[in-house]
Amino acid sequence: RKEVEQDPGPFNVPEGATVAFNCTYSNSASQSFFWYRQDCRKEPKLLMSVYSSGNEDGRFTAQLNRASQYISLLIRDSKLSDSATYLCVVNILGGGADGLTFGKGTHLIIQP
Amino acid sequence: NAGVTQTPKFQVLKTGQSMTLQCAQDMNHEYMSWYRQDPGMGLRLIHYSVGAGITDQGEVPNGYNVSRSTTEDFPLRLLSAAPSQTSVYFCASSADEGLAGTDTQYFGPGTRLTVL
């Protein structure tokens, strides 16, 4: 059974702080990992892919831990505009569109 | 590029009515998918297509039909609307990324459907 678990939050964080949240996945055949961002009443948009060695994009850092089957997202120097729901998405090898599993999302609120 | 477009943005139906949600993309993507998003649930796959003329069922296909006559268009038909189909519907497209699976999903703006 494919499953992706996220803490729904909300995470209330003061502006400028660092925040991190994890996502666990149950299918050991998972090979592709992503973080999507979804603003209120909008469509999800890709934030970043997650690579085995970890990767960084500006203030955002994504990590993968295959042994413990989780991925993480760290946001440094948080901005008000970072307030959104962050969706964890995994795919199995060769899974195609039907192999994608979406987490329910973590709600982040950056407070002034 | 317009990306992925969906119409209508909002729709209210009565139980038993039928309707078609439209989805189009101008990125020449082979993969197209329909998802529904409900409060407290993750995005769930309804139907998907790996190319023109090819469709398949996702996790929650009952009550919905799709067709893919062109690369650009992927309409979703509700056959006889039920209150349980009240949801936000997202269409998405992606390029075929080969063995890595389907990479970046580009979502449309969504259709908010209420069935009374």
What is the overall shape of chain A? globular
- SSE pattern of chain B, N- to C-terminal: EEEEEEEEEEE
C-alpha geometry of chain B: globular
Assign a percent range to the helix content of chain A: under 10%
Distance between the termini of chain B: 36 Å
Overview of this structure, please?
The complex is a heterodimer of chains A (112) and B (116). Chain A has 112 residues and is mainly β. Chain A is built from no helices and eleven strands. In chain A, 0% of the residues lie in helices and 55% in strands. The mean pLDDT of chain A is 91. Chain B is mostly beta strands and 116 residues long. Chain B contains no helices and eleven strands. Chain B has strands spanning 4-7, 10-13, 19-25, 31-37, 44-51, 54-57, 64-66, 76-78, 87-94, 106-107, 111-115. In chain B, a hairpin with a 2-residue loop joins strand 5 and strand 6 (54-57). The N and C termini of chain B lie far apart (36 Å). Chains A and B meet through strand 4, strand 5, strand 9 and strand 10 of A and strand 4, strand 5 and strand 9 of B.
Summary keywords:
heterodimer; A: 112 residues; mainly beta; 6-stranded mixed β-sheet; 5-stranded antiparallel β-sheet; globular; B: 116 residues; 11 strands; 47% strand
SSE arrangement:
The complex is a heterodimer of chains A (112) and B (116).
Chain A: E1 4-6, E2 11-14, E3 19-25, E4 30-38, E5 44-50, E6 55-57, E7 60-65, E8 70-75, E9 84-92, E10 101-102, E11 106-111
Parallel strand pairs in A: 2-11
Antiparallel strand pairs in A: 1-3, 3-8, 4-5, 4-9, 6-7, 7-8, 9-10, 9-11
Chain B: E1 4-7, E2 10-13, E3 19-25, E4 31-37, E5 44-51, E6 54-57, E7 64-66, E8 76-78, E9 87-94, E10 106-107, E11 111-115
Parallel strand pairs in B: 2-11
Antiparallel strand pairs in B: 1-3, 3-8, 4-5, 4-9, 5-6, 7-8, 9-10, 9-11
